[in-house]
Amino acid sequence: MVRSLCAQPLETFRSYRRIAQEVPIAPSALSTYMSGRVVPPPDVVTRLWAITVECGGYAPEGVASLDSALEIWREASVSRQGLGEDAVPSQIARFQAARRRQSGMTPPPRPAEASAPTPIADDAIRHLKAGRESDALSLLWHIGQTHTPGEIRDVVAAYSVARETEAADAVLAAASGRRTEDILRITASLLEAKRYSDATALVDAAVQRIG
């Protein structure tokens, strides 16, 4: 799909390096996305779509709309992670079970002003409110799997303040499947923000996954 999205901009800019600058991403990242070795984040797909339409004035072949492009991205992302239709909901359920186990053992999260969520986090909530649960879960899973500890902490805090607890749980459920080093960094970030129940539930879910 990325190769298709780059076809029209290439006629305008004459180089992949210039396309990468327009996104903006590193040329090496664009090359990796075009090879299919890595699925790009949805904001890159959205930006490439906009550049394609700006350059050609029409949709690229095989990708009729931005929604179509994001649906292709969602399917590729789920496939690359090896997640079937029921895998994400089951892992979220496992995390929520971990949260229930810890609910009587830790104080509630400290009420505080939350940092603004990332654009992807905003998009996920819009999908949820529009009833597009699969699209929302794909974005939430992407956040938990790829964002930095600080970004995850801020997104979870923002979702909690907005009473979007299921979205926060989905992000943390995804984070519980990361490498041990990443989980420890995310846990430390949550503890620093005094989000004790989130931190303990994350560790519990990760231990249950490993065990």
TrEMBL record:
Region Disordered, annotated ranges: 97-117
Superkingdom in the source lineage = Bacteria
The name this protein goes by in its record = Uncharacterized protein
Protein's organism: Streptomyces hundungensis
